[in-house]
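WARN retry 2 of 3 for item q-0093 after timeout on previous attempt; input resubmitted unchanged.
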Amino acid sequence: MQRTLLCRVGRSLEPGLGGAPTQRGELRAAGCAPAGRRGGVEAGRRTLARLRSMQTLLVRLVVLLGLTSRLLETSALTGAPWGRASRVFLSPSQVKDRRLGLKVKDSNFTLGGFPSLILAGTIHYFRVPKEYWRDRLLKLRACGFNTVTTHVPWNLHEPRRGQFQFTGNLDLAVFISMALEVDLWVILCPGPYIGSDLDLGGLPSWLLRDPKMKLRTTYKGFTKAVNHYFDELIPRIVSLQVQEDGPIIAVQLENEYGSYHMDEKYMPYVKQALVTRGVKTLLMTADTGQDLTGGRVKNVLATLHLRSINKATYETLSSFQGPSPVLMTVYTASAPDGWGALRHSLDPHLVMRDAREMLAFWFSLNFYMFHGGTNFGFMGGSAPLHSYLPTVTSYDYGALLTEDGDYTPEYVTFQELLRSVTVPSHNLNPNEVHRPPQPESRPRVVYKPVTATYYMSLWDALPYLDEPTRSAKPVSMEKLSVNQGSGQSSGYILYETAISSGGLLTSRGHVQDRGQVFLDNLYIGVLDHASTELTIPRRSDYEGSQMLRILVENQGRLACGPDINKERKGLTGDIYLNKSPLRKFKIYSLEMKPKFIQRDLPNIWKPALFQPRGPAFFLGLLRVGDHPRDTFIKMQDPGCSLERMRSWCSRSGSLPL
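OK item q-0093 returned
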């Protein structure tokens, strides 16, 4: 037995342990090492890869032992043979009375009174353009899944306190209804915290205006905001529950609260907040193996994330839940990519092996992510890996569809697997099953290169922006009096103050996250998480004071962990010059949202005859013709200062970039 298990050792099931190789042969170019250090870096990477391989072996062995333990337990409880080939799963069109809902009966889920597997894949509607929702859902169905899982980001739906958005790409009700139209169930994760590698885990940054805020607890300031949000959100989805003949079969409470567990009264509060507003479908929690107990709630189904799983996990699960079906709410095939880090990869053979093992035990599973999509704008968060790792724009995540929704080889392999081990009904012949049609890939095109022909310096634009905030001390983004008192959530923030001498500029960790420092218009250097000191020269050609400028970029708040309560951005405390705190600041909010970019500015564009120095806006023209198609934009040597790009489509067949 031991020899067999060792032959099956492969990819670690814990995100991050096996993340050194690149995803499908690609690299993120940001953060390359200087030429003189690359040899040492490569050697270090090889050493790290060997260590990860050892970890992989141990983790895989432990997981298999845990799954074997669950197999024996399941077989004893149900009498089901190990080698059963077909697993029944039901879609909405096959259930005559959907109002019976999803139930737990011994070690099975039932739908309409019949045993059924839940085979789900995660798609985040807010990471996919609304025009492509149906295409992605149809591809999920055609792959062999019967359920879509989606999370609801509070920070996008209530970007300013009391102002809600449920239209366009955020029209949740339309997405859920569309899932039913293509014959999919829905597992909904309304939070309030959802993680999902979003800025602050999907919590709105304006919560941090309260200096005493305790996120994810029963702190009065937090629960008051949650109640107001749920008053808007929950009425929009109650009629879409399976009991009302809709597709929502389960609602997840919070997300991995066992790893946070700051307040034992909090999860019961979330449950009550949902139930009293009309949620009556199956409730569940989701936690890793080691955090299972900390996240449990009485009379709520506990489900698992496929991390830290061992024999004790199932013993713990059975001790407080008894015989019950196992749902791997997050079957994670990869991990999110971070700026400056090598991309993660997945081994499709091992992915299939894991899935076969789970299906052999009659586990239900959710593939995270089936389609990852894109972190549009500044929605991506950061991970507390080592020190700080901002999430990249692509949320590929080793998904079965590419970022733009195309098929991957893994999609086809997974489709074949699901067809081989499942039949859509308990009395149908697999050879007679009608398979849903598989949508064709969407056409893409390569357009001609675009050259930035004009630029506008940030310094030239400042007089035409909103009036700056004046403050004796630095003020963080969240505490600015902008956006009707909700503060600034994302983008950049500029601090200006007059100094009369040079010397040592010290941040003491108060620059969050990356600050470019200028003396008047002259670039001096960077203050960030790693660099906390800069020498400011005294310019001999000036008399009197000079303008010290610190342009701070918010690279994304932590998406998880106990430090999320501290995730304020900009200058979060005093900045010192020669050990004396600087005072009398002018502070410009540079949120970089469409309203900011589209403001009416005078024609102060200048020809980009040479590469301008310092922060600037650039203008180029992309001609797309009468029938625009999807495309990717590849930046040629963008430099460290380029972090985001905005585009607006026009009917004229051109895109100003």
